[in-house]
Design goal:
The complex is a heterodimer of chains A (142) and B (220).
Chain A: E1 4-8, H1 12-23, E2 28-32, H2 35-44, E3 49-52, H3 61-71, E4 77-81, H4 86-94, E5 99-102, H5 107-140
Parallel strand pairs in A: 1-2, 1-3, 3-4, 4-5
Helix pairs in contact in A: 2-3
Chain B: H1 2-48, H2 55-84, E1 91-94, H3 95-112, E2 116-120, E3 127-130, H4 132-148, E4 155-162, E5 166-172, H5 188-197, E6 200-204, E7 209-215
Parallel strand pairs in B: 2-4
Antiparallel strand pairs in B: 1-3, 4-5, 5-7, 6-7
Helix pairs in contact in B: 1-2, 1-3, 1-5, 3-4, 4-5
Classes of the chains: A alpha/beta (142), B alpha+beta (220).
Chain lengths: 142, 220
């Protein structure tokens, strides 16, 4: 099954070409040019990975990451940015970012990280299902 | 020497902040070029497997790369002008050039806050003799203040105008100058930079603006 990814970046020229290249690699891509648009899309859809730019107008990547993690702690967020400071990188990882890539990034590396994110998310989803099943079994006492 | 003293750590931090922003912008340019080159490789690979190349698609790719090269050129020109702004403590400069450089340097910061900068420059050249780096630092601080007191319209008008004495730099449409959240202005740093430039700094809440007056030829 194809990986499903949301790419969020205010650089439209970058976003469109990256999306085209990923689609040609069999990845199902949705794009957003702002954090606000991304959060709206996340309300109605789930993704195996979210590729998020750090520096965006109005709502930056760190704030968007906080919102995403509040709503969906299991979301796999890969940060992709121009020139991060060490403190921003550390803050992002503390907030639960899965990975960090610096532009210009190698598409094979990014694709690999998306695959890893999907595999990690699958494990988390399975764990959650297993926990829910155990809880049901305990409470119902069958 | 007095100029060097006033630049101090804050001046170096201003230089660093602008340099980091420029490098970020250049990274974005490189990222777009990198993806376009990657797409070109992908298309060549597909052509090798028998898929027809679309000349229109290739033309668009070339245009995108050219556009990014022009963008990168503008950024490096600004970077160069900014780097040379520390060269001389007293140099004749056109106020429009100062505004253009300030706008270019602050573009990302302004956009990050969702603010629009509306710029008005004098019709002809207006020369002032000043230390460009200190002037840019002062105007950057004025812009920072302006961004913190901008109104709900999120637009700041930046006007450079010729006066009998020299030139005004005016930051207008500042709707929230009188609110409790408004920071003090001019603060110690702005006053120090203004004194070094022999510039006068005005805060005019009634007109909803702050402005800097620079004499055409400043004192020593």
């Amino acid at each position: 099954m194809a990986e499903k990814v949301l790419i969020v970046d205010d650089e439209k020229g970058f976003l469109d070409v990256l999306a085209e290249r990923m689609q040609s690699r069999g990845i199902e891509v949705t794009t957003a040019t702002s954090a606000k648009e991304a959060l709206q899309k996340l309300e109605v859809e789930t993704f195996d990975a979210i590729v998020l730019d750090l520096m965006m107008p109005e709502m930056g990547g760190i704030e968007a990451l906080q919102h995403i993690k509040e709503k969906n702690p299991d979301a796999e967020v890969i940060l992709l940015t121009g020139q991060p400071s060490v403190s921003t990188g550390v803050e992002a990882m503390k907030l639960g970012a899965s990975d960090f890539l610096v532009k210009p990034a190698d598409i094979n590396e990014l694709t690999e990280k998306i695959k890893q994110a999907k595999a990690h998310r699958m494990v988390l989803v399975e764990k959650n299902i297993s926990k829910k099943m155990k809880d049901i079994l305990k409470t119902k006492g069958w | 020497m007095a100029h060097m003293d006033v630049i101090g750590l804050s001046g170096i931090q201003f230089f660093g902040k602008m340099s980091a922003s420029i490098s970020h912008d250049l990274k974005n340019v490189l990222a777009v070029i990198n993806e376009n080159a990657g797409l070109l490789e992908d298309l060549c690979l597909m052509a090798g497997k028998g898929k027809l190349l679309d000349p229109g698609r290739l033309k668009r790719l070339a245009e995108d790369v050219k556009h990014q090269v022009r963008r990168g050129d503008r950024i490096t020109t600004s970077m160069n002008d900014f780097a040379h702004s520390v060269d001389e403590a007293s140099v004749s400069i056109d106020v429009s050039k100062v505004v253009e450089l300030l706008v270019s340097l602050s573009e990302r910061f302004v956009a990050m806050r969702g603010i629009v900068l509306e710029v008005g420059k004098p019709a002809g050249p207006v020369a002032i003799t000043t230390f460009p780096f200190i002037l840019l630092n002062l105007l950057w601080l004025c812009l920072g203040y302006a961004m913190s007191v901008v109104g709900p319209g999120k637009a700041i008008e930046l006007l450079a105008e010729k006066t009998e004495e020299g030139a005004w730099f005016r930051f207008c449409k500042l709707e929230n100058m009188e609110t409790d959240a408004a920071p003090p202005f001019p603060a110690e740093r702005e006053i120090a930079l203004g004194q070094a430039l022999h510039a006068q700094i005005f805060r005019d809440p009634a007109a909803r603006e702050v402005k800097v007056l620079l004499a055409q030829r400043q004192g020593a």
